[in-house]
Structures are given as structure tokens and as C-alpha cells.
Model the fold of this input.
Amino acid sequence: MQRDEEERDANTEAPEGDEFGSPRIVIVGAPGGRGLLASALDRRGADVEVMHVYRRQPLSPTPALISALRKRHDLVVLISSRQAFSIITDALGKELSPGWLDSRFVVSSGRLERVCRDAGVSRICTAAGAADEQMLAAARKAGWARDQGFGGGF
Done:
């Protein structure tokens, strides 16, 4: 099962279970996410329960994205999920994958950066986290986004 990249490496550096002031920790999310965090907390002695309250449903790439890739537009992709990266990459197939992998990627973690590099992405900038502000700040720092007018979307 793939792990959600919102699980930053820092999250696995959690303190010992008795430092939480509560004998039990509940992680709320979807299947496929937060597995590393739960494992790290469990190893540190916390009583962890994972509660799945929703299910992720992959969507097909939009016609706008497909069109942009066919025209070989120089896209900037902000992505914080290995699962999303894999689903999109697989859905694009052999015809569109080269344009996708040639895009500029802003990723939320070193782990996701490695996944993208292993898949063939060469232009990658790693944000300090998955929050919108962190991702946009990284895109701006790389010179890939303007302060005004960064919008649109697929």
C-alpha cells in the first residue's frame, strides 16, 4: 500500500509515547495514508488507533492537462502525494508521460523527490512542507512562479 507523502520525514521523529500526556492517539484519515506516522508512534510506545473516515477516489487527468501535455507546455506541478503522482503518471500512458515527466515539479518532501527522480523527473524543487504557502514559496524561490497571477489549474 502506498503512503501519503503528506507524512513528512519529520513526523516520524515523534517523541516517546508517554510524552503525549494521553495513553491513546487516534489518527483520522483515509486508507493508504499516515502509515509511517502510526508505525513510528507505535514503536515509541504510544497506543495508536487509525480511523479511516473517507476513501480516496482517483480521477482521470482533465482534458486541459492532456491538452497542455500534448502541446508540450512547460508545466509547473505542485504535488504532495506519491499516490497521486503514481496515479497520474500511470493514467497518462506512454504518449503523454514524457511531457509530464519533463514538467517542473514542486514536491512536499525528500521522499517524494526521490520517487519523482526515480520515475524520470529531473526538474524538482522540494518545499518545506505540503501547506499551500510552503509549496508556493518553493515555486517562487525556484523562479517558477510569480507573486501575482499564479493560477489556473487542471
Observations:
- Confidence is low (pLDDT under 50) at residues 1-10.
- The chain has five helices and five strands.
- The CA atoms of residues 62 and 146 lie 24 Å apart.
